[in-house]
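Data card: per-record layout.
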Amino acid sequence: MSNTINIHMNQTPFTEVQTKSVINHNQNPQLKVVGFEKERIEPNTKVDISKESQLKQENSSQNTKKAGVTGPREDWENGSAELRRDARGESKTRASKFNPLESMRIDEPETYAKSMELTRRAGEMQQKWLAFGAEAPTEEELEEYQRLRDESFRIENDWFQRRCMATGTFQDPAEKRYATLNTLESMYSSEGHETSFNFYGTEEADSRNSLWRFYSKFNVLLSANMVKDLDNLNKFNKLVDKDKEDLSKLLEKITESIANMKDVEKAYEGNLEWLAFGVKLWDNGDVTYHANYKDCENKDGIMANSAEELLQMLMEKK
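The structure for this 318-residue chain is written out next.
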């Protein structure tokens, strides 16, 4: 892969946005990675399907998706783009476009995790009191509940003042990172299907971390550290050689993983409904491949350590 990546950034102004007060900022900064978008690492996703699996597929319904072709776009995919815009404060339908929790999540993942942990603990206390037949909370419990809520609010407000109002004028600190994710989605969405990017932090139970959050045919989940590393795209040529090499390897891994994921979809033959595919890149260097579908036994779908293994698992489904 070439070590020369040029970045072009432009921002398109939009009209005033009403939050608690009227604020001005730029929407959808577009980031273009010149010289990389044409590169593609060809995967070698080949699986020998057992005769038993082949017979199962031959006896399936007429709606069977055939191997060797990409499946048609389905109705459930149509809301994906709006879900992403809504999460990133770019929605065309929301009256208030700034999404503070999502912005904090991508801007300062550790701060977001602290606030969410306090909110979670307060929520558990509230659910306990609301349970059928539960005893009324004691004064000490109510004080602890209020302390958790107040501390969570203090953390969020501190972040807002430091990161959004540092200059005295509102500016969403997440805009550039949103632009990077939008650019990656544009690069890898094709053939009638969108590829959505999301990221995960330390809060495993947080639905915002979900691989399937945006209901796309193809889904990519990066770590918060990877998203932070991608900030360096706009200053690639100024990086030292080691940082250039690390960033190039990350982009190559993203490209290869997505290509493998899409090849699994193309190679799959069967009649699973609402079938979606995902890939998760882990900070330790691992890559896992995922699929989810209607009536899957696990709400988070199935997972494999390779594209080949995922295809084999799918082909064995009735």
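Known properties of this structure: The beta strands are 6-13, 17-18, 22-23, 26-34, 195-200, 218-223, 276-281, 287-292, 302-304. The first helix runs from residue 51 to 58.

See the next section for split statistics.
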